[in-house]
């Protein structure tokens, strides 16, 4: 028997309870895994609280990522005892996810845990940190060099934002962090490597089509009017990696930054990211994240605390990364 957080729907409300299950309850897949850690991402918050239509089939075990140990495998790529990490592929949305002591998954979805990382560290990074790495990689691919100028990170005290700030600083970029919680999180953002912290209210005023050019690159986790303001302030030939919608999924912008300033808007998706790109991103995360990141920007909780943290993350009240110990 093992413990899992199970979501059910009653009268259109999502109800989360901890249940005792056995392996026969698990969905199909080639690899059976003892989950060491899962993590809490914004999408998990939407799924567990029912505030977002993430899950369509109930009962469902949430948890869009996990790290654990292979118990048994019908696929020759994985052997008993191997350490693996999983993010995305719809796990925790339409296939039972990581907030469970056991999971059964497709071998194609797994990535071997990179050398230099353990399960806990992998989930301190989690989907959010992995996505931050993809965003930073998008700026590297766009050939944005540190000497080009400042890089802006929005939603900076969240999971994606805090890792993006850390990674960019480690790569030698000058980072400006935008947060709605300057007093609470300013010192942490500076410790992670931000050279200045800007109040989000400055990005919530309606944007003119073009404003003063300030940013050589940007990682946006917020969307909506904040992204629109960011676009209006981008330098000539700069690039924005956009991955999130914490402030809304609309984008009230104009074509002006694109057609007059050669600004590139690169979307970033982590869910269907191809395996080769995943492996490269995990290796780079091991290389770039300093020990201090894990000490400063992560909280560990037990499974029964997940519903409360889910509520908090949807209200923008979580700082850094939250890992769930299974
Ligand atoms: N494309 C992908 O594959 C992918 C993968 C992972 C995450 N995401 C998306 O990226 C976003 C961030 O995810 P996360 O896990 O880092 O979430 P998170 O930890 O909740 O971080 C989001 C941050 O955005 C800011 N924020 C919250 N509400 C806001 C609002 N109404 N207006 C403006 N800013 C607001 C807050 O930062 P401050 O307090 O510092 O302002 C918050 O900490 C989410 O939208 C998530 O769905 C996408």
Automatic annotation (TrEMBL):
Gene3D superfamilies named in the record: Medium-chain alcohol dehydrogenases, catalytic domain, NAD(P)-binding Rossmann-like Domain
Segments forming domain Enoyl reductase (ER): 13-324
InterPro entries for the chain: Acrylyl-CoA_reductase_AcuI, ADH-like_C, ADH-like_N, ER, GroES-like_sf, NAD(P)-bd_dom_sf, Zn-ADH-like_protein
Domain of life, per lineage: Bacteria
Pfam families per the UniProt record, alphabetical: ADH_N (PF08240), ADH_zinc_N (PF00107)
GO MF terms, alphabetically ordered: acryloyl-CoA reductase (NADPH) activity
Coiled coil ranges: none
Protein name: Oxidoreductase
Organism listed in the record: Photobacterium rosenbergii
């Amino acid at each position: 028997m093992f413990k899992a957080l199970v979501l059910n729907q009653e009268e259109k409300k999502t109800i989360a309870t901890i249940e005792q299950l056995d392996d026969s309850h698990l969905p199909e897949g080639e690899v059976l895994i003892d989950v060491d850690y899962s993590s809490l991402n914004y999408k998990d918050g939407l799924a567990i609280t029912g505030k977002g239509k993430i899950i369509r089939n109930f009962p469902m075990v949430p948890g869009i990522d996990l790290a654990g140990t292979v118990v048994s495998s019908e696929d020759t790529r994985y052997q008993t005892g191997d350490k693996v990490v999983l993010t995305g592929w719809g796990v925790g949305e339409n296939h039972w996810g990581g907030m469970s002591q056991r999971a059964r998954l497709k071998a194609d979805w797994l990535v071997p845990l990179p050398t230099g990382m353990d399960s806990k560290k992998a989930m301190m990074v989690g989907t959010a940190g992995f996505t931050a790495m993809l965003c930073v990689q998008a700026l590297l691919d766009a050939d944005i060099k540190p000497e080009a100028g400042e890089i802006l990170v929005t939603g900076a005290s969240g999971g994606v934002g805090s890792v993006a700030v850390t990674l960019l600083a480690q790569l030698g970029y000058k980072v400006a962090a935008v947060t709605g919680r300057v007093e609470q999180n300013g010192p942490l953002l500076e410790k992670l490597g931000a050279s200045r912290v800007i109040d989000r209210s400055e990005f919530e005023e309606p944007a003119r089509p073009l404003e003063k050019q300030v940013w050589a690159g940007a990682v946006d986790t917020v969307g909506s009017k904040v992204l629109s303001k960011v676009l209006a302030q981008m330098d000539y030939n700069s690039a924005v990696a956009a991955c999130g919608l914490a402030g809304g999924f609309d984008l009230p912008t104009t074509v002006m930054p694109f057609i007059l300033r050669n600004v590139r808007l690169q979307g970033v998706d982590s869910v269907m990211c191809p395996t080769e790109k995943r492996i490269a991103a995990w290796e780079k995360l091991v290389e770039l994240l300093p020990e201090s990141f894990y000490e400063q920007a992560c909280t560990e909780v037990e499974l029964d605390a997940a519903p409360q943290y889910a509520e908090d993350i949807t209200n923008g009240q979580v700082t850094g990364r939250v890992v769930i110990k299974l």
